[in-house]
Specification:
two-stranded antiparallel ribbon, transcription regulation (chains A, B), 10 strands, DNA-binding, Tscrpt_reg_HTH_GntR (chains A, B), UTRA (chains A, B), WH-like_DNA-bd_sf (chains A, B), alpha+beta, about 260 residues, homodimer, Arc Repressor Mutant, subunit A, GntR family transcriptional regulator (chains A, B), 2 domains
Chain lengths: ~260, ~260
DNA sequence: CAGTGGTCTAGACCACTGC
DNA sequence: CAGTGGTCTAGACCACTGT
């Protein structure tokens, strides 16, 4: 059987090059993807095809794929093939997403926004429980010992995109609607204000890193997809930290956007 | 020769487990690192050690290392060994970093801040040239055809941490100090204001992803380190976009921080 | 020099997919 | 069933590091 790779899509190796063979193959595949010769979702030549085309061993080809996988360019499906990873639709988080006017609706911001974007939103694995505050959380909340933790996972069209935990000082949240699985319209920020904790501002800290194995599982992350780790602290008008929300997001599903005054 | 791996640091494989051998080895190494049994910067057992300890082939061990490398937990040095990747000091970018008071100093914000943090700052590969605007840049700057591009790379203690390009409409920047390699105290934002473009606000868009091969080279990134891609647009009081700054940062070197009003 | 990781081969058997 | 990727072996030779 002759090679099933169309001529011109992939070139030949340069035996005089210092560059390792598997890197050269990865380079050629990457270039072909970048130039659109293999499109999103399209299947790449099989390992056997490439073994034949380049005259190398299978491990060499697999090494090339593993580079591209680490770059987040392709993903493999057992028994099916290796595919160009499609760019999923991204969720844009604007810096006014917690403004009061957004809280005046019955549904949560996540649901409203996803509906508007034509995606099917879901929230699952809701857990609300009292815990000992971690060292870091205690520092952020002002030497609090015990906290109410609200954990939930967000999905769009069946795909998990975000996992978030809110921590609130226990003395503030216990025996309030905040301790209910569903805190009601406007979410916990609306409830906090009703309880007299008028929100003044939020601090957000943003990091990016590769996910832990647990995060890979929870967010069903493909290889080569980092996470955005966002830690938001909400302060009331008296300067007290009333909530810390720790959020891990699939980086390929988000664009964060902020507006800064130029004063 | 008996194994050089201290007993207790690493366990045995579970032959009844469905989990692939190389994943089990990676799990054990990861756990040992997480628990501090191997500390930052410390050398892991050599491939040969692990081959002997687990009774597997070398490729199996290398597969384990490659998992940990993808997670950003370890890095290898040819001829020396595989090491636990140290967490480098991070640069904190606050959302008030462009406030006018920060512009009143003679040095750039980067230099001032790094000095304060006790790091040695450098700026290199400065390039200033006129270019055709990319499609995206043209849209951001309001249908501009040609731009002035200012490219530079930032280093801390010899390590590249950030690569940034500023784009300005050519009609605005040509024949001004902004087109000089060194635009003077306060940087180009101070010059823009002197030219009558009073800054009103900035928009920042944040993404995280794995780096391209070019970015790996420019930022000398280790395996398993994502980049933060920040696109900032500066608007003057007339609502005109006067600059777009496209920045790629080594994610392990940064924490971004924003303050949002709760209005 | 010995010890380390980097690259590569040529197989083997397995598990999953889709016809 | 054939075709695909997933795992694993047992070698080989090379390039780099440090003594």
């Amino acid at each position: 059987m002759t090679s099933s790779i169309p001529v011109g899509l992939l070139g030949a190796l340069d035996p005089t090059s210092d560059r390792a063979v598997f890197r050269q193959i990865a380079d050629q595949l990457r270039e072909a993807i970048d130039k659109g010769r293999f499109k999103e979702g399209e299947k790449l030549p099989s390992e056997a095809d490439l073994v034949e085309h380049y005259g190398v061993s299978r491990m060499t080809v697999r090494n090339s794929f593993s580079i591209l996988q680490g770059e987040g360019l392709v993903h493999s499906e057992h028994g099916r093939g290796v595919f160009v990873r499609p760019r999923p639709p991204v969720r844009r988080l604007a810096s006014d997403r917690f403004s009061r006017r957004h809280r005046e609706q019955g549904k949560s911001a996540f649901i409203v926004e996803a509906d508007a974007a034509g995606s099917k939103p879901e929230v699952d694995s809701l857990e609300v429980k009292e815990e000992r505050a971690s060292h870091d959380m205690s520092a952020r909340l002002g030497s609090v010992r015990r906290v109410l933790a609200r954990r939930r996972r967000y999905l769009l069209d069946g795909r998990p995109v975000e996992f978030a935990t809110s921590y609130l000082p226990l003395d503030l949240a216990r025996n309030t609607p905040i301790a209910q699985p569903n805190p009601g319209p406007g979410g916990i920020y609306a409830r906090l204000e009703e309880l007299g904790h008028h929100l003044d501002h939020f601090d957000e800290e943003i990091r990016a890193r590769m996910p832990s194995p647990a995060e890979v599982k929870t967010l069903r992350l493909a290889a080569g997809v980092p996470v955005i780790h966002l830690i938001r602290t909400a302060y009331d008008t008296e300067g007290r930290a009333v909530e810390v929300c720790d959020t891990v997001m699939a980086a390929d599903a988000y664009v964060l956007s902020y507006q800064l005054p130029a004063t």
